[in-house]
Write a structure and sequence with these properties.
The protein has about 220 residues and is mostly helical. The protein contains 6 helices and 3 strands; from the N terminus they run αααβββααα.
């Protein structure tokens, strides 16, 4: 199946209500947006620093670096793919193959709250504010800016890693769109409860037909 992200979005027939086109495109583009950072990170597993100036002895052994880097890259893509559930039917009704909850309706808050918390954490985690003297303010505090052996390595790192800063805001936007879509009242529900502006108020009587007499 070919994903035409930049053109027509995938079908949304499996959702209760239509998904906005922008949300569909963002959700499917997110794994591709994070892929360059995942690939750029992989050489660090075998102690190739991608042009970064690293102090000797600061790199962990292969027994730790390989599973850590590979696991982090795989986890990044898995979480990004799970975000697609905010625009698909399996984010509204749990797939049948999942034990216990399979086939059950997913409550809006059960998906909305984790997505918002995750989006906030990712936003703070990957946001760095320059404070001068080659130092940045991050979630971990004030840290030194990473230095590279050449401008080419720094440019490559910037191109690959910078898009990951949009991960948190995109997740937040998709979570809000998901919650609004799942909790919106349909027109039929509003009419049944007498809340539609075109519905007759409770107890109201319609005027008799012209001619008055009922047909036999």
């Amino acid at each position: 199946m070919t994903l035409k992200i930049l053109h027509r979005p995938p079908s949304v027939d499996d959702t209760e209500r239509p998904v906005p086109r922008w949300a569909m495109r963002l959700a499917y583009a997110l794994p591709l947006l994070l892929l360059p950072a995942c690939l750029w990170r992989l050489p660090f597993a075998v102690h190739f620093t991608m042009g970064q100036e690293v102090q000797e002895g600061s790199v962990p052994g292969y027994w730790l670096s390989i599973p850590y880097v590979l696991g982090l890259s795989v986890l990044t893509e898995v979480v990004a793919i799970l975000t697609i559930g905010l625009v698909r039917g399996w984010g509204e009704v749990a797939p049948a193959w999942i034990p216990v909850i399979g086939g059950r309706r997913v409550r809006p808050m059960a998906a909305f709250v984790p997505a918002v918390l995750g989006g906030l954490i990712l936003t703070f985690l990957f946001t760095a504010v320059p404070v001068g003297d080659d130092r940045d303010l991050t979630l971990y505090g004030v840290v030194d800016t990473v230095e590279y052996t050449s401008d080419a390595w720094q440019l490559l790192a910037t191109v690959c890693v910078s898009p990951i800063a949009a991960w948190g805001p995109i997740t937040l936007a998709l979570a809000i769109a998901y919650y609004r879509r799942r909790t919106a009242r349909s027109a039929n529900t509003a009419v049944c409860h007498g809340t539609s502006p075109t519905a007759d108020p409770p107890g109201a009587q319609r005027p008799p037909r012209a001619g008055g007499a009922s047909r036999s």
